[in-house]
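Async update (no meeting this week)

Hi team, since we skipped the sync, here's where things stand on the single-chain job. The sequence we agreed to prioritize is pasted below, unchanged from the tracker. I ran it this morning and attached the output directly underneath so nobody has to dig for it. Comments welcome in thread, and please keep replies under the output.
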Amino acid sequence: DTKVMEKGSVDKIIINTSGIGLADFILDKEIEVGDSVIVSGGLGEHGTALLAKRFELETDLETDSKPLHEEINEIKELIKQSKDITRGGLASILNELVGKNKVGFMIDEEKIPMKQEVRALCEILGIDVYSLACEGRFLCICSKNNEKEVVDILKRYNSLATCIGNVK
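Output:
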């Protein structure tokens, strides 16, 4: 990971830590037409929290940054594929999955969970909310039959978890 530091903001030393781990499972099952597309919580909170700080705007937004292993571990048997919504945001992840799986997605924008403050800040700054980084959110794909169970489990971690569309 790299950080850009303003000139004069570093007075001594910066310590960067990284964690590396191994998964004992692979989420790379074939997805099919009709499968559900689910997000694990509200989008854009990380990106807008950083922008608000950078532009010295008063806001209650906080980064959504957090580990995802507990959520993924609980639903891993119910889902086919999953991807964290980091660099490039939701738009980039959906595009990546389209290319990888040779399918399309029908996404209902009105179902995409987002705090009103996130929408408002993006509108004010002229930023595409669907391209904002989310450091503690992921998108997953499961069969329509597993949709309710997956969403119910994810809502225990974030009340905004929801199905936003399906595979076409």
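Quick observations from my side:
The two ends are 35 Å apart (CA to CA).
DSSP finds five helices and five strands in the chain.
Reply here if anything looks off.
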